[in-house]
C-alpha cells in the first residue's frame, strides 16, 4: 500500500514538475535573452554559466540524496 502511494505521488510530482519546468524555462529564456542584450554577450554564454553554477551546487548536496534514491528504487524509477 505504501509503495503504491509513493508511486502515485512520484508520478504526480513528475507531471507537476514538468509543467513547472516548461513554464520556468520559458521565463528563464526570456530573462537570459534580455540580460545578454544588456551585457552585449551571447545568451549561450549566460546559459552555460547557469548550468555550471547549477552543477556545482548539485555536487555540494549530492550526499543528501540517498533517501531520494531509496524512494526512486522502491517506486521502480531509474536511478
Summary, kept brief:
84% of the residues lie in helices and 0% in strands. With 79 residues, it is mostly helical.
Description:
With 79 residues, this protein is mainly α. The protein has three helices and no strands. Helix 1 packs antiparallel against helix 2. The chain starts with a helix and ends in a 5-residue tail after the last helix. The model has no long low-confidence stretch (mean pLDDT 81).
**First-to-last CA distance:** 22 Å
User: Which stretches of 5+ consecutive residues score pLDDT under 50?
Assistant: none
What's the total count of β strands?
0
**Whole-number mean pLDDT:** 81
The SSE string, one letter per element, is HHH
Give the C-alpha Rg. 17 Å
The proportion of residues in beta strands is under 5%
Helix/strand class: mainly alpha
Helix content: over 70%
Please tell me what the overall shape is: elongated
- Sketch the major β-sheet: none
Helix count?
A: 3
Identify the notable features of this structure and list them briefly:
mainly alpha, 79 residues, 84% helix
Write the layout of secondary structure elements.
Layout: H1 2-39, H2 43-61, H3 66-74
Helix pairs in contact: 1-2
Amino acid at each position: 500500500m505504501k509503495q503504491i502511494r509513493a508511486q502515485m505521488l512520484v508520478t504526480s510530482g513528475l507531471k507537476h514538475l514538468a509543467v513547472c519546468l516548461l513554464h520556468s524555462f520559458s521565463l528563464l529564456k526570456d530573462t537570459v535573452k534580455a540580460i545578454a542584450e544588456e551585457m552585449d554577450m551571447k545568451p549561450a554564454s549566460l546559459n552555460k554559466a547557469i548550468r555550471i553554477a547549477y552543477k556545482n551546487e548539485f555536487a555540494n548536496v549530492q550526499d543528501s540524496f540517498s533517501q531520494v534514491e531509496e524512494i526512486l528504487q522502491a517506486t521502480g524509477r531509474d536511478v
